[in-house]
Amino acid sequence: MSRDPSCLFCRIVHKEHPAQILHQDDQVTAFRDSNPQAPTHLLVVPNQHIRGVAELGEEQGPLLGRMIQVANELARREGITTHGYRLVFNVGREAGQSIYHLHLHLLGGRPMRWPPG
Amino acid sequence: MSRDPSCLFCRIVHKEHPAQILHQDDQVTAFRDSNPQAPTHLLVVPNQHIRGVAELGEEQGPLLGRMIQVANELARREGITTHGYRLVFNVGREAGQSIYHLHLHLLGGRPMRWPPG
Questions:
Q1: Which ranges constitute the DSSP H helices of chain B?
Q2: Structural domain of A93
Q3: Domain contains B114
């Protein structure tokens, strides 16, 4: 599996940096955001180092399917499905991407405002 | 293909309701949001009626891959890739989902704030 030794999220996936991991399987890892913006704020990342959404093509469909499935399962476990939740990918610096390892934000547990930032 | 005759986005997909369609293929349709929240604000939807993210499982991975690929292509066509863009799924009413036909928001052309709503 490709990894980048300088990448924070690669280090979390490989248990070399602390995080509250809620799910890990052969493809994805999910953990709590260290700077939460809602009562529930989790990140779902591929175990493999992929820089971001702009690097994704159709061939990563199965990985995306797994990421969304895990996000849905964690939303159920967190008890936030009745009122709803928001899934966000930031692509690039001005959109707010600070770590260049693909990650899906899952936010919920409070009403979400519009616009989304 | 499953469709709901009362669904606005099904009607847009089938050209029964006006929208500025930017892309359409055998799986997905993309058009401009009628209430834009950024200089570029597009929606990417499956042609098939799927209520939302909560109804997606791993088997919809290929569809998700196509949706992300189309979003990336449209971001390039809109000239917003240098500064970045944000992709958002709202799941449920309190997260801001107003149309119960799966749709991915693509926003860019201005800096995006944090939190994402």
A1: 8-13, 61-78
A2: 8-108
A3: no
| Distance (Å, whole) CA B14 – CA B103 | 16
Chain A partners of B66 at a C-beta cutoff of 8 Å? 58, 61
B44-53 pLDDT, tens digit per residue, is 999 999 999 9
Residue B116's φ and ψ, nearest 5 degrees, are: -80, 60
Using alpha carbons only, give the angle B35, B26, B75 rounded to the nearest 5 degrees. Answer: 45
Give A 29-48 residues with CB within 8 A of chain B.
Answer: 37-38
Contact A13, A45 (CB under 8 A): yes
- Catalytic position from the list B49, B101, B103, B105: B103
Query: Which CATH number do you get for residue B48?
Result: 3.30.428.10
- pLDDT grade for A2, boundaries at 50, 70 and 90: confident
In a domain, A86, yes or no: yes
Q: What is the pLDDT of residues B64-105, one digit of tens each?
A: 999 999 999 999 999 999 999 999 999 999 999 999 999 999
Predicted TM-score (pTM) of this structure: 0.97
